[in-house]
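In practice, a research group might receive sequence data for several interacting partners and want a quick structural hypothesis before committing to experiments. The following worked case mirrors that situation: the sequences arrive first, and a predicted assembly follows.
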Amino acid sequence: MLIPPTYTKIVEGCIRREPLAQRRLYELFSPKMMALCYRYAQNRDEAEDMLQEGFIKVFQCIDKYNHQGSLEGWVRRIIVNTAIDIIRRNKSLQLVSSLNENIIESTVDDNIVDALEVEYLLNIIQDLPDGYRIVFNMFAIEGYSHAEIGEQLNINESTSRSQFTRAKVLLKKRIHEDSLVINKYQDAI
Amino acid sequence: MQYNSFEERMNRKLANATMPPHTQVWDKIRQDLDEPPKNDGKKGWILGLCLLFCALGTGTYLFFKQKEPNAITMTTSVQIKTKSKEAAIPNKTITQNAIHHVETKNQNTNNQNTNNQHINKSISNKNIIHTHEAMRTKEIILVESARSPKNEEEKSISTIEITTKELEVVPTKVEVIKSAIVNQHQVSTKAEANKVQQIDKQNITTYFLSSTSKTMATPTTKIPKPKHNAKWTWNISTGTYAILYQSLLDNKVSPKYARWQEALGVANIGVGDSTSNLIVYNDQSLSVAAQSVTQLTDTSLLKITVSPNTQFATLSGEYRISRHFGIESAMSFYYQKMNRILIPIQDINSFGEAIANSKTTPYYGNTKSALAFKFYILEPKILFNTHFGAGNSDIGLGIGMAYRALVGSTDSNAALRLAQIASKDAQIYNPHNFSVHGRIKYAYHINEKLAIFSAINAQVLLNRMYSQGISYKSPSLCGMEIGLSF
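A structural hypothesis for the assembly, expressed as tokens:
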């Protein structure tokens, strides 16, 4: 995949450690990457730490970028890895895979997602337990396979699957509950 | 493209979601990227071993060379020449007391190596009178001598004496000496500044932890109106102090304004200028001090002579060099009525920056030689003193100090920034909002309030000021609010 010439210039500038180029790269991708970090983090502060550390790695490793794939994808991968590292570093990542709770699919209509605000979705993802959150983000949003997730998180592929399933259930349940509250409120009005 | 499943819908919503990060994130990244790479361990080991061998070698050499173990005192003399014209101006003899840890050097050399060689040397000039002739020879003898152990009690306290005299226009020889000292002892390297900063942080901690022992005593005698001679003595804590500079030279300063200052009992005390090595004074209180740190140690004795009618005073006395880094400065002092403050500085760099910035900021004047500073000597436990002149910068700086005192912040940078911002605000808002009378009254009003309420908290003060009808746009409130938002 060819990258736009402007990106090439920016990358070359970053390799030469030119502050302007670094700033430009940061400005290009930081809003998206911030949202990404926000999904992995538990709060905004942690997300900004992830973003900061992630971009430092990006700038330090920019010379390893081979100009073949998408620059954004390359940056995104580094940021995701950094986010996972930080979560691991801050607290031992516990994957609650052995829960015996019954997985009950919520009856919420999937279409409702389209009507929900991005901010709301980010917040409910943030509220998930660490393991659920990471696996859900990696699988559903970043597009990692369960095999890749298993390798990255050092867990079984099946564990990754179950984490994802449970995350999905929890999210749906939350959306369902919140929508009930909202409906009730609107009825009251 | 159809999105059917829950995760696909989530992906579509979130994959390209954006959220702007705070601007500080980039600053932090930039800061991290700018940090020099850490030394690798190998180099450290090699350096360490080299140092170890050097130390062992030196120790062995000294051990065998020394004949009488108790007579370690080594005396060297260094002749320093000065070509300063001002050095030839005689008019006063001043006796300096005890052992001086003062370093001087050739005023015309900027060689830092020479500086380093002189660090921690002391002038052993007990009861030596600096005569006119001595100055004319343009030679200063430096003698290195061993320090005698000091009484612990003495260490914690030093004394400052202030003497007012009338009409002292001509600078003294001591001033000249001091100005030479000032030039020599500028903190010239970042490393030195950092060291000072570390030490100062320790001092600061001590100050804030100790609520009783570190207070600066109130002058035992009220400072009278400038026309009378007077002498004051008070105790001052040991420690490193910053001299906070304030520019006077916004173009709005006029002789008329200067007279207002005089009427209020304002006197400026200054020391050397980095370029001329001599204090320059005029109606606009032009004076420059080139040094930012003063180390007051055990027996430091400062005698400050105030010459009210000329709006400046000379400073004489004894200065001690920091034992650690040989940083010493002439000390300048600004006083207004009986208010004064001392504040240890944590970050000399910030002051350096402030001074550097002042060369380009219109407010502070455009030329180095034209920089004018007032001086504040602050101490945190006094909380807030003190001087609010009637000018914009007075108010701004005062607000910065107030913030620091009120909030109890140890961040002098924040205070300084605040002062700078508030000064600008004051400049913007003041001239059209206040008459000269109004400004003076206003400044005193704030001063009084701050003095009274400084120990409470900033919010109380702010409310008080609001209740006094000070408009929102007034510089002090701008500054104070900025201060509160830090």
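Before designing any experiment, note the following. The interface with chain B takes residues 17, 19, 22-23, 26, 30-32, 34-35, 38-39, 47-48, 51-52, 55-56, 59, 110-111, 113-114, 116, 118, 121-122, 125, 136, 139-141, 143, 168, 171-172 of chain A (CB under 8 Å). The radius of gyration of chain A is 19 Å.
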